[in-house]
Design a protein that fits this description.
single chain; 638 residues; mainly beta; 13-stranded mixed sheet; 9-stranded mixed sheet; 5 helices; elongated
Length: 638
């Protein structure tokens, strides 16, 4: 927009505001030779000029209204103000907003790129795609308020002298108070600051008000380096709201010694109510290029860093001595600042059985559920390699990645090696968020003998992801370690559910009995895919464990309900459920001293047949389940 156009807009608006008041008398003195009709004609002509200038201004700015945004915005910001900024950028051809991409309310790489192009076009420097004070001031300068249509003015009267307008402030209580200042737990020491990174939290200060409310108006910070060679801006925030910020250059920093540089943040007033604590967080923007000689710097609150007044308007200065410094690691690699962590989710399947259909196909069996966590930036995952191991009669040729019920990608399971490469997909995790990915596979050739399948996702080098800046994550920024439990596949399988597992100690009676432990384990078995048979004796094993180590076996007996007994075999009908109750007793008579200790009892084996005449299968994992393992409480014996 030309300077002339800006000036006419400002003049037109100022005149319109000064002379027009809807339904009110004019307050400008008028020469007696000018009639009301003549003055009204002059006003009408002036408004026509203003409207013409506004039309020109609208053509320069685009069709969308100029948004009013009161906070700084950067990658990761969310909200209606982000939506307003995006809609404005969409209307500006200079922003080159992607065709067909609607406003989302999330500030990501698209918004950053478009804002940077707009800033460059209108002369905002640096054109970094960050919405801060410079961009806010520019938008305010081009915002135009449309004047309302004036009413016919009444007869002029002698104007009164206007009074000054002041911003009302809340009355202070008048009470004297004290202030306590200490280091906040977050952000912790050791944060990383990458070149061109914005909004990185590096230091926190807790301020507590006692006996009165207090009003914080200054925070002073001390650095051990010439900080203007590392950062471009410092801001002080409370509850995520920017209170004050300072552009950092050599003029903004006070050098005390070669290892002491201070910066003061002022120009704000933040009230802390009596008896409460507020946390003030220091955030910084890094220079786009930092000399390799800078690997770390420290930041701290020196003595008297925080200045406030109490309810009686008395100045307060704390802390009495410097707070502990935080160390910040400077990263010049140019790689994305994002951190990616992939780990096993707690809800990932335990060792268990999966049933195939009558053709021997088990479709999309869940092998592993992974947590995928993004820190410091949003992350787009594009490549992931899983290893799927299969032994037994069955095979797997295809696997899938799911986000809930949504398919993310599918891949071929390499025969022989089990290497499964998911590639060229696009799946995003927002900054400081954890999402879940589920690995599934389809199996064929499943029979009445067991096929075992397991999976791992553990390779950082073959896991490809990028930050919102489009830069790939370095291997050091990725931690990938997720291993699934073993899944046993058959055409007919049991489903085990523990009901209870207890051991009860009976104390010895001198000359009559020794100490005994009575064991009782109760559980259900459901048959899927066909009938299951279990022998009436010797199908179940229970072992005592002394201080976590297995000892000799326990003689047990069991009863069964819900199954049909024929000869020595119990049959659980397909889709039917049987209840097993196992009992045993341990007698400590003759136990030596080294046999004393903490005992628990575990069901370590359950023998069954997937259909009459089929090869027997032994289930040996029930006591190792992470949820509801088949083992009792602990008792001390003898």
């Amino acid at each position: 927009m030309s300077n002339t156009l800006k000036k006419f807009s400002a003049i037109g608006l100022s005149v319109a505001t000064a002379v027009l008041f809807s339904g009110a008398a004019m307050v400008l003195p008028v020469a007696s030779a000018v009639t009301v009709d003549e003055l009204q004609a002059q006003i009408t002509a002036l408004l026509a000029q203003i409207q013409a200038l506004q039309a020109q201004l609208g053509a320069v700015q685009g069709t969308a209204s100029v948004p009013t945004i009161t906070r700084d915005l950067t990658v990761g910001s969310k909200g209606t103000d982000v939506t307003a900024l995006q809609n404005f950028l969409i209307s500006q051809s200079s922003a080159q907003w992607p065709s067909g991409q609607a406003a989302t309310g999330y500030f990501g790489s698209i918004t950053k790129a478009a804002l940077g192009k707009y800033q460059a076009a209108v002369g905002i420097s640096p054109a970094a795609g960050y919405f801060g004070a410079k961009t806010r001031a520019y938008l305010s300068s081009i915002a135009v308020t449309t004047p309302t249509t004036p009413t016919t003015p009444t007869t002029p009267t002698t104007p009164t002298t206007p009074t000054a307008t002041t911003t009302p402030t809340a009355a202070k209580s008048g009470n004297q108070g004290t202030m306590d200042v200490k280091l906040a737990a977050s952000p912790a020491s050791g944060e990383d600051l990458y070149e061109a990174e914005t909004g990185q939290a590096v230091y926190g200060i807790e301020v507590k008000a006692s006996d009165s409310e207090i009003y914080v108006s200054r925070v002073k910070l001390e650095f051990n380096q010439a900080i203007y060679n590392i950062i471009s801006k410092i801001g002080i925030y409370r509850d995520g709201v920017l209170l004050a910020e300072k552009v950092i250059n050599s003029d903004a920093v006070t050098r005390i010694t070669s290892s002491q540089y201070t910066v003061q943040l002022t120009g704000f007033e933040s009230k802390v109510d009596k008896g409460t604590t507020a946390t003030f967080v220091v955030k910084v923007d890094a220079l786009s290029s930092i000399d390799s000689g800078y690997s770390t710097f420290t930041v701290k609150a020196p003595a008297n860093a925080v200045n406030a007044v109490d309810g009686a308007n008395k100045d307060l200065y704390e802390p009495s001595s410097a707070l502990t410094a935080n160390t910040v690691n400077v990263k010049q690699s140019g790689a994305s600042a994002a951190l990616l962590t992939i780990s096993k989710n707690a809800s990932s399947p335990d060792t268990s059985y999966a049933v195939a259909d009558s053709t021997g196909k088990a479709d999309k069996v869940t092998l592993l559920i992974m947590n995928v966590k993004a820190e410091q930036d949003s992350i787009k995952l594009t490549d992931l390699v899983a290893n799927i191991s299969v032994t037994g009669a069955g095979t797997s040729s295809i696997a899938y990645l799911y986000d809930g019920d949504t398919l993310v990608d599918s891949a071929t399971v390499t025969a022989g090696t089990g290497v499964t490469t998911f590639s060229d997909f696009s799946w995003t995790v927002p900054k400081d968020t954890t999402k879940q990915l589920t690995l599934k596979a389809t199996f064929t050739g499943i029979a009445t003998t067991t096929t075992d399948a397991s999976s791992t996702v553990t390779a950082e080098a073959t896991t490809v992801a990028e930050g919102s800046d489009g830069i790939a994550l370095a291997t050091a920024n990725k931690s990938v370690d997720a291993t699934g439990a073993e899944i046993h596949l058959l055409k007919i399988v049991p489903v085990f559910t523990l009901t209870s597992a207890t051991v009860t100690k009976s104390a010895a009676v001198a000359g009559v009995s020794s100490t005994t432990a009575a064991v009782n384990i109760k559980f259900t078995v459901k048959a899927l895919g066909g009938d299951i048979t279990v022998t009436s004796t010797n199908a179940i094993d229970i072992y005592p464990y002394l201080n976590g180590a297995v000892t000799s076996s326990l003689t047990e007996a069991y009863t069964v309900s819900g199954a049909t007994l024929s000869g020595s075999l119990y049959t659980i009908a397909q889709d039917g459920t049987a209840t097993f109750e196992v009992s045993g007793q341990l007698d400590t008579k003759g136990y030596a001293t080294d046999q004393a200790g903490n005992y628990d009892f575990r069901l370590t084996g359950f023998g069954w047949h997937p259909g009459a005449g089929a090869t027997a299968v032994s289930t040996t994992f029930l006591d190792d389940l992470s949820t509801n393992p088949f083992k009792t409480n602990i008792v001390y014996l003898p």
